[in-house]
Design brief:
Blueprint: H1 2-26, E1 61-64, E2 76-83, E3 87-95, E4 106-114, E5 123-125, E6 128-133, E7 135-143, E8 146-147, E9 154-158, E10 174-177, E11 183-190, E12 193-201, E13 211-219, E14 225-229, E15 245-248
Antiparallel strand pairs: 1-2, 2-3, 3-12, 4-7, 4-13, 5-6, 7-8, 7-9, 9-10, 11-12, 13-14, 13-15
The chain binds calcium ion.
């Protein structure tokens, strides 16, 4: 109990700090330019601003679309995972021709997180093996062709038996958690490629291990999968599946 209270206090402190920064930020001319006079500002290794140059040469894990005959679900071509003492970060490149640029809320992106670095605990989902996820974050990539900021994604906690699928039971084995300040996202389309970056505040994910395991999936407006990584190659016309992408974060603040 004491440990839980300490965690909550720590998380609230971080949220307060982030909220303070966010308020200041709105008074400044552009995203990412608010780091002048705020000594409490945490300088993360990635700034979520749609300028992807900070990913160049960064220490990260990478998954790419298999080149040897993968013929289904090709919309996500590259997926990168990294992090620092306060956040972990996701970068993805998507095939812009497969995105819906017209609708109000479209191309939902799901981030599956094995938070305890144990593939035997938590839920399963057919795209990754072993997965063992404890949390799922979901929001839309786009709204009327503009990238969404992920200011309030849907944040699910898996509550079912280990090794089961949260959606397979009725009602689903899931609890929805508050998600304010959890994420921030930005994207840009360049040369037919949608480039997208996203941050997750580590303190808001209970029990998050330093070693994280993450899978990304994107769907069509009709909730059909159009992309997911990591992914295995096609073998005899069948998809094969891999473990989620793994990255070890430095100790949290
Ligand atoms: Ca797990």
């Amino acid at each position: 109990m004491k440990k839980n209270l300490l965690f909550i206090a720590k998380a609230l402190t971080v949220v307060a700090a982030v909220a303070f920064v966010s308020c200041n930020k709105d008074n400044k001319p552009s995203r990412g330019s608010y780091d002048d006079d705020d000594e409490e500002q945490y300088e993360g290794i990635v700034k979520i601003d749609g300028d992807f140059s900070d990913w160049n040469g960064i220490d990260c894990s990478t998954a790419s679309l298999p080149s040897d005959g993968m013929t289904t679900s090709t919309a996500i071509r590259t997926f990168k995972l990294t992090g620092d003492a306060m956040y972990f970060y996701i970068y993805a490149e998507m095939d812009a021709s497969q995105l819906d640029m017209e609708s109000e809320w479209t191309n939902p992106v799901d981030i599956y997180i094995n938070s305890d670095n144990n593939g035997a605990t938590g839920g399963i989902f057919y795209l990754w093996d072993p997965l063992g996820y404890e949390y799922l974050i979901e929001s839309n990539l786009l709204a009327f062709g503009e990238f969404s900021d992920w200011s309030e994604p849907t944040f699910y906690k898996f509550t079912g038996e280990d090794g089961t699928d949260m959606w397979a039971s009725n009602p689903p084995a899931v609890e929805q958690l508050a998600s304010a300040n959890l994420c921030k996202a930005a994207g840009k389309i360049e040369g037919g490629v949608a480039k997208w970056e996203m941050s997750v505040l580590r303190a808001l994910i209970p029990g998050l291990n330093n070693t994280i395991n993450v899978g990304i999936m994107m769907q069509s407006p009709e909730w059909t999968r159009i992309g997911s990584l990591p992914a295995g190659p096609m073998v005899d016309g069948e998809e094969t599946f891999e473990a989620p992408l793994k990255f070890t974060l430095p100790d949290a603040i």
